[in-house]
Design brief:
The chain is of the alpha+beta class. Among the domains are: 6-90, DNA-3-methyladenine glycosylase AlkA, N-terminal domain (TATA-Binding Protein); 119-220, Orthogonal Bundle (Endonuclease III, domain 1), CATH 1.10.340.30. It contains 14 helices and 5 strands. The protein has helices spanning 19-23, 74-84, 99-107, 119-128, 134-148, 165-169, 173-178, 183-194, 196-200, 207-215, 222-232, 246-255, 262-269, 276-287, and strands spanning 6-11, 35-38, 41-48, 51-59, 65-70. It has a 5-stranded antiparallel sheet. Strand 4 (51-59) and strand 5 (65-70) form a beta hairpin. Helix 12 (246-255) crosses helix 13 (262-269). The radius of gyration is 19 Å and the shape is globular.
């Protein structure tokens, strides 16, 4: 019997966030079994140090953020709800002179760099995205979650928790193969699972120290480290070097150049150091209605 008892809170943030825009980058497609967005409400299942938990995050009519949580880890999620919604973010310190970015800041005032505080889970789903087509990664994630995990607590039907590190660590390769995950990515997933506790410790480290710890894991390169830092740690300066499409997105929107490289992307983003991840999020938010560009790791 799933736990239906909710713990709730209301957050009065200085600037109401656009919750789908802020949190959707942590989702593996519209059918992600662990994170769903329905009518503007964000439903998220995760594992906390206190156990499984589900949270529903939504805006009230007065602009406050309402959070309901279920499961043994409900209180843990409630305590961290402000940072998930971007309370630690400082978008007001980003004042670009570039006309396009000024317009995007104005058009997307609710975009925040939130922090899920779920480092292993984030590194796991980002690893699945390595070097494959986006929709293939989404399918692999769905299959893996449904095979290796369990339904999440709370009232949302069909919501599942991400797999536990212990389960990932002991899963043989032939099982991952059935999910469309080849041996290289399967090996990285198991390495991440073995050091899951060390990964979660990065929440209390400096970003520099956290990235050193990420990169010390064989198979975790700059792309995976940056994506993990952006989502789990809320790093507004994270740049995913090694992406197939991102250099072209940045080069086109900031310089009118149809083709880009990592070097050119970094050159164009350098004036915005400290907010380079924010710039990328804004460019992607601005290009969603104008292109079907998807991010895939190189």
């Amino acid at each position: 019997m799933r736990d239906q008892t909710a713990v709730s809170t209301a957050l009065s943030l200085a600037r109401p966030p656009n919750l789908p825009q802020t949190l959707a980058h942590a989702r593996m497609g519209n059918a992600d079994p662990c994170l769903r967005i329905v009518n503007g409400d964000v439903w998220r299942a995760t594992r906390t140090p206190l156990g499984l938990a589900t949270e529903r995050v939504h805006l009230s009519g007065h602009g406050s953020v309402l959070v309901d949580a279920w499961g043994p880890g409900a209180e843990w999620l409630i305590e961290r709800a402000p940072e998930l919604c971007g309370a630690l973010d400082t978008p007001e310190t980003f004042q670009p002179d570039q006309p396009l970015l000024r317009r995007l800041v104005h058009t997307h005032p609710g975009l925040r760099i939130g922090r899920t505080a779920a480092v292993f889970e984030t590194a796991m789903l980002v690893t699945i995205e390595q070097r494959v087509a986006t929709r293939d990664a989404w399918r692999s994630w769905w299959l893996m979650v449904r095979a290796l995990s369990e339904p999440a607590p709370g009232p949302f039907p069909g919501l599942w928790a991400p797999p536990a590190p212990e389960r990932i660590a002991r899963t043989p390769y032939d099982v991952f193969h059935r999910f469309g995950i080849e041996r290289r990515r399967a090996d990285v997933l198991r390495r991440l699972a073995i050091v899951a506790r060390r990964l979660e410790e990065t929440l209390s480290l400096s970003l520099e120290a956290a990235y050193r710890r990420f990169r010390a894991i064989t198979g975790v390169g700059p792309w995976t480290a940056a994506r993990t830092g952006l989502i789990a740690l809320g790093d507004p300066d994270a740049v995913a070097v090694g992406d197939l499409h991102l250099p072209h997105v940045v080069s086109w929107w900031l310089a009118g150049e149809r083709r880009g490289s990592d070097e050119r992307m970094l050159e164009l983003l350098e004036p915005f150091r400290g907010h380079r991840g924010r710039v990328i999020r804004l460019l992607l938010a601005g290009s969603v209605s104008r292109s079907s560009i998807r991010l895939e790791s190189a």
